[in-house]
């Protein structure tokens, strides 16, 4: 499942890019309307192997959105203070308020993924986290938050090419991390854990983004985001006097 969708075939690049631009503009309009209405919110979860293009998707997908209603948070290795608490403590602090569009670049799924492969947390502790994540996401949705979960599928060839580019391109030196090569060598182990996550944490469905080409991943993600925004049937709020009555 995972390996088969790193790239879509038989698509016309120029027509897709034109369609994507229209979709992104509508996303920007609806995102600002959602911010004004303050009844709904959106949480976008981006997961993928190193060099799958998570940062680039944030930039492209939110091109026409108003920054006042946006927040992007990148989850790193837990700090000592975070590690001393339950694994969802730091995540819950970043969920979106009503009206906000929040992006998680990596997320709570890293707390299953990395310890499963690296083996520094007991298996029974990891096992309980699957259901705790399901319950956490249900709680967030009950507060009016629409969750979109994207797995960014990148082929081993493209992943290797991008990791090498971080070494050869001075503008991308800052992205280079020796540990990324260790992750590449353990690619199959990480993919096996991802497959288990897809099977057990799917009450909020996962969408797989073909991430070998930027224009394809942006198009697929934009289609799903626009669908979510349209489903909210957003309305511009009336004048305050109409909402609360004249003084």
Describe the structure.
The chain has about 250 residues and is α/β, with parallel strands linked by helices. It has a single domain, classed as P-loop containing nucleotide triphosphate hydrolases (Rossmann fold, 3-Layer(aba) Sandwich), CATH 3.40.50. About 50% of the residues lie in helices and about 15% in strands. It contains eleven helices and five strands. The chain has a five-stranded parallel sheet with strand order 2-3-1-4-5, sandwiched between helices. Helix 1 packs parallel to helix 10 and helix 5 crosses helix 9. The longest helix has 25 residues. It is globular.
Structure summary:
The protein is an alpha/beta fold. The protein has helices at 13-37, 54-61, 80-83, 89-92, 110-118, 123-142, 156-168, 178-185, 187-200, 214-231, 240-244; strands at residues 41-48, 70-74, 101-105, 145-153, 206-210.
